[in-house]
């Protein structure tokens, strides 16, 4: 009987120890996420494809000094655009000079000592269109990203569209426009055009081209709306003291320093350290 009692007491003691360990671990986690780290949820597509909407990311602002290439989370309760946390990449810090070539998507940063470097931005999501002739003087322009297409004349003037593009599979697109059905393989750029009578023609491969879309900079209307926008003519642009210049990796789908101006470093609430959901990853 005494052995059974001792066994029960041992089980209770062991259970107590496990509860104690669990409570201590919970206490440590609470301390970490109160004073060291913070968990945020990515909202929107401005950092595609590095982060996508719904990603869970651990950030920390403890002893943090921003540097080029860091992914940071910003928040400014006094700003409409930044009233909720937003995630961007630091392109340049105070005193550094940023230059942007929107045609080639080249971003150049000159530091305070005059050292010039062209950023290697494998993370930047560039936007391409596919163009091919569909009749004399008319060019079909397909946007594989938005799955839309338009027809332009040789001078680039819009003739018709936009119309929906059907993604037959991962590589093949199909669009019906102006009585024709055009099929394009985005990998090989092989294209065919079928007229209203069902006659199919192969498009000359030399005339099917992939084009890099111009990187977005503020238009006249956007500069009127965003009072702190940096005019295209103002580049090269030197970052203010105590500020950073940030951009989203999804360059043509991001509201960032091009439109909001330099961001006060005090608005940085932390650097992204690790993505924990849905695809764990350290470093960006």
Catalogue the unreliable spans. 24-31
Query: Which shape, going by the Cα principal axes?
Result: globular
Q: Give the tally of β-strands.
A: 22
CATH topology of the largest domain: Umud Fragment, subunit A
Output the radius of gyration.
27 Å
Query: What share of residues is helical?
Result: 10-25%
Describe what is shown at a glance.
The protein is 16% helix and 38% strand. With 284 residues, the protein is an alpha+beta fold.
Description:
It is a single chain. This protein is an alpha+beta fold and about 280 residues long. It folds into 3 domains: about 35 residues; about 150 residues, Umud Fragment, subunit A (Ribbon); about 80 residues. It is about 15% helix and about 40% strand. The protein has 3 helices and 22 strands. Strands 1, 2, 3, 4, 19, 20, 21 and 22 form an 8-stranded antiparallel beta sheet that branches. It has a 5-stranded antiparallel beta sheet with strand order 11-10-9-8-17, with no helix packed on it. The chain starts with a helix and ends with a strand.
Annotate the secondary structure layout.
Layout: H1 2-36, E1 37-41, E2 56-60, E3 71-74, E4 86-93, E5 97-101, E6 106-110, E7 116-118, E8 128-135, E9 138-143, E10 148-153, E11 158-164, E12 166-167, E13 172-177, E14 180-185, E15 191-194, E16 200-202, E17 209-212, H2 220-225, E18 237-238, E19 243-247, H3 257-260, E20 263-264, E21 268-277, E22 281-282
Antiparallel strand pairs: 1-2, 2-21, 3-4, 3-21, 4-19, 5-6, 5-18, 6-7, 8-9, 8-17, 9-10, 10-11, 12-13, 13-14, 14-15, 15-16, 19-20, 21-22
